């Protein structure tokens, strides 16, 4: 059964949105491993700060079913899709990894490129899976994080617990 990792983010009603996502993911997939929650400035647009975390769980569901479930959860919790990728959102659930699968086509983009691109994805992933090897680079997440260049990205850990 593959280990699945999901990135969770919100900058609109972020505490309620993330709590709702964790509640729904737990109801659907069972026990979750949750990273700490990070706060970061919006990238690519002016907006409220984001809360981001990563969760991991085991699932035998096919990728298509997982992505449909993530989309339904986003919609139920108020996500309205906009054409502009860089915009405020109530909830963003991204499939980051599905076991060690590498697939880049019009249906699936795994491993998700944001793992290597954004601190708010890589750092929480490294928190919960430091020894996990990236399927394309072969590097452990902790090593990738150690080598990561922050650039203009600003982020810090919060005390927010989405299970409360």
UniProtKB/TrEMBL annotation:
SUPFAM superfamilies: 6-hydroxymethyl-7,8-dihydropterin pyrophosphokinase, HPPK (SSF55083). InterPro entries: Hppk, Hppk_sf. Pfam families: HPPK. Keywords: ATP-binding, Folate biosynthesis, Kinase, Nucleotide-binding, Transferase. Pathway: Cofactor biosynthesis; tetrahydrofolate biosynthesis; 2-amino-4-hydroxy-6-hydroxymethyl-7,8-dihydropteridine diphosphate from 7,8-dihydroneopterin triphosphate: step 4/4. It comes from the Bacteria. One of its GO terms (molecular function) is 2-amino-4-hydroxy-6-hydroxymethyldihydropteridine diphosphokinase activity. GO terms for biological process: folic acid biosynthetic process; tetrahydrofolate biosynthetic process. Residues 5-130 form the 7,8-dihydro-6-hydroxymethylpterin-pyrophosphokinase domain. This is 2-amino-4-hydroxy-6-hydroxymethyldihydropteridine diphosphokinase.
């Amino acid at each position: 059964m593959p280990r699945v990792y999901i990135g969770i983010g919100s900058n609109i009603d972020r505490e309620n949105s993330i709590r709702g996502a964790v509640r729904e993911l737990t109801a659907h997939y069972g026990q979750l491993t949750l990273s700490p929650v990070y706060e970061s400035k919006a990238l690519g647009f002016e907006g409220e700060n984001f809360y981001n975390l990563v969760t991991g769980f085991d699932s035998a569901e096919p990728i298509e079913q997982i992505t449909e479930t993530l989309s339904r959860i986003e919609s139920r919790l108020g996500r309205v899709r906009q054409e502009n990728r860089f915009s405020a959102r109530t909830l963003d659930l991204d499939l980051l990894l599905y076991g060690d699968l590498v697939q880049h086509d019009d249906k699936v983009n795994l491993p998700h490129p944001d793992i290597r691109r954004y601190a708010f994805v890589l750092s929480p992933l490294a928190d919960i899976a430091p020894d996990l090897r990236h399927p394309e680079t072969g590097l452990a997440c902790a090593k990738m994080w150690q080598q990561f260049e922050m650039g203009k990205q600003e982020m810090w850990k919060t005390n927010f617990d989405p299970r409360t």
